[in-house]
Design brief:
Distance between the termini: 17 Å
CATH topology of one domain: Rossmann fold
Bound molecules: adenosine monophosphate
Largest sheet: 5 strands, parallel
Number of strands: 7
Oligomer: single chain
Strand order of the largest sheet: 2-3-1-4-7
Shape: globular
CATH class of one domain: Alpha Beta
Low-confidence stretches: none
Radius of gyration: 16 Å
Structural class: alpha/beta
Strand content: 5-15%
């Protein structure tokens, strides 16, 4: 099963992707994580992507399409994958449809006000990419990742000014992707506000996965 997760930055795509991954036993392909890894390595993709990521802008479509196409060809994607953060433009969605059959696109709906509040308290593990919130979902030991023990940090692009820019980009360039999948009859939407477990149940119901 190939699934797309749509939603504004901070809507909870990464958190929910982990639940779907465990249920379907397929990998999560997070383009944001792939880009952050490339930037940390300083490879050719990372050098090109950094200027866009740091400003909260989208990395050009051709780079992203090549990256995802290559990743989807890996053996571990033979049974499916959850795509988190791709496609983010209609051009990316069209390209994806040409090289891969998408079963469903799930949109996690959260208001801009909630996003801004969430992002201000978001803490991320640079090692395993687990995310926390200082109030809503704190780690057991403040500042330390529960999963791998690494020191948590604030993502450079979670800076409030960059978050506002990312929301603007989301509304302008990524929201039309919802209509693209609605027209194909593949869009499901859920409210992304409330306890994480409740949202998980809404999503599993929408995707007809065993609760
Ligand atoms: P994310 O972790 O998904 O919020 O992504 C972080 C940043 O990576 C975004 O703000 C973009 O700069 C870049 N990015 C991630 N996925 C894409 C994509 N599909 N197309 C263009 N840029 C992307």
């Amino acid at each position: 099963m190939k699934l797309i997760l749509l939603g504004a930055p901070g809507a909870g795509k990464g958190t929910q992707a982990a639940f779907i991954k465990a249920a379907l036993k397929v990998p999560v392909i997070s383009t944001g994580n792939l880009l952050r890894e490339a930037i940390a390595q300083g490879n050719a993709l990372g050098i090109q992507a950094k200027q866009y990521v740091d400003k909260g802008q989208l990395v050009p479509d051709d780079l992203m399409i090549d990256l995802v196409q290559e990743r989807l060809q890996s053996n571990d994607c033979a049974q499916g994958a959850v795509l988190d953060g791709f496609p983010r433009t209609v051009a990316q969605a069209q390209a994806l449809e040409d090289f891969c059959h998408v079963d469903a696109a799930l949109s996690i709906e959260v208001s801009d006000e909630t996003i801004v509040r969430r992002m201000a308290g978001r803490r991320t593990c640079p090692q395993c990419h687990a995310t926390y919130h200082v109030e809503d979902n704190p780690p057991k030991v403040p500042g330390i990742c529960d999963k791998c023990g690494e020191k948590l940090g604030v993502r450079h692009d979670d800076d409030p000014q960059v978050v506002l820019q990312r929301l603007k980009v989301y509304h302008q360039q990524t929201e039309p992707v919802k209509q693209y999948y609605a027209d194909l009859g593949k869009l499901r939407s859920v409210e992304g506000v409330g306890p994480v477990e409740e949202i998980r149940r809404r999503i599993f119901k929408a995707l007809e996965l065993p609760l």
